[in-house]
Design a protein that fits this description.
By secondary structure, the chain is mainly α. It has eleven helices and seven strands.
Length: 265
């Protein structure tokens, strides 16, 4: 089971780790229970198999309350509730002493950004202005199609603040990258020089190539004088904080509200 677990976790197939971990823990616990039953005949190997499954899942996946509930509902072994709770807590403590859980480790190996909900003490001495990005790319409430396509092609961010065209320091909303892309896709490009409707033909490929395809299609002659109303799609009441906002509150907002962007004004 252990070799199959390593194989299934290392390849890109939709296979879970929960049941294989239970089987491996059950085997280890059952073997230990059989050894004890050979010495003391009143030992029940089944109880040790159940506790072994709880120990391995708690140590590998760092499961706590949910693990106890699942094992109790699946086995109806209520007399083993206290040993399972104790084993799960010990397995979590010992595992955290050495490394992170297997899912946290996989996130780190794949460079997936993940913000934990733990508020460290050092977060209280920093402010939002200490970690924010200063050179922010913004868009106006009415922007030319050519400028939007240039931004989408050259900048990797997934959202942009919207500022007032008459006052670039006045923040009025926020718009996502996909929303800008949709506005461009649904725009009819026509000019006085060309007496026909020019539509962008977007191939069904990756987003980056789609942006590049649009950039190559919309030339300066066709797209320069066409403006797009961003106010129709932007979020007019996004979350934002001030420069003096504590970093602890910023982290709390990201974790509790599930934010991907937070504008500092």
């Amino acid at each position: 089971f252990f070799s199959l677990l390593l194989l299934s976790f290392g390849i890109s197939v939709p296979s879970g780790l929960f049941l294989p971990t239970i089987l491996i823990g059950t085997c280890f616990g059952g073997c230990f229970g059989n050894l004890l039953s050979n010495v003391w005949g009143f030992i029940n190997p089944g109880s040790y198999a159940l506790i072994g499954a709880a120990a391995l899942i708690g140590g590998v996946q760092r499961a706590t309350i949910s693990l106890c509930v699942i094992l109790m509902e699946g086995t109806q072994e209520t007399e083993n509730l206290l040993p399972i709770i104790f084993t799960t807590l010990v397995a979590n403590y010992v595992g955290n002493w050495f490394n992170h859980g297997i899912y946290d480790t996989a996130l780190e190996m794949n460079n997936v950004p993940f913000l934990k909900q733990t508020i460290h003490n050092r977060f209280y001495i920093f402010q939002a202005q200490n970690i924010m990005t200063n050179n922010v790319i913004t868009v106006h409430e009415t922007e030319s199609a050519q400028n939007i396509i240039q931004i989408l092609s050259n900048d990797p961010h997934s959202g942009y603040p919207v500022v007032d065209k008459s006052n670039s320091k006045k923040y009025i909303g926020f718009i996502l990258r996909d929303q800008l892309f949709t506005l461009i896709e649904n725009t009819n490009f026509n000019t006085d020089k060309l007496d026909f409707l020019y539509r962008i033909q977007v191939p069904a490929v990756t987003l980056t190539r789609r942006y590049q395809s649009m950039l190559n299609s919309v030339t300066s002659t066709i797209g320069q004088n066409i403006t797009i109303d961003i106010k129709s799609a932007m979020n007019i009441a996004p979350h934002n904080v001030t420069l003096e906002c504590p970093l602890s509150r910023v982290v709390s907002l990201f974790c509790t509200m599930g934010l991907r962007h937070l504008v500092v004004v």
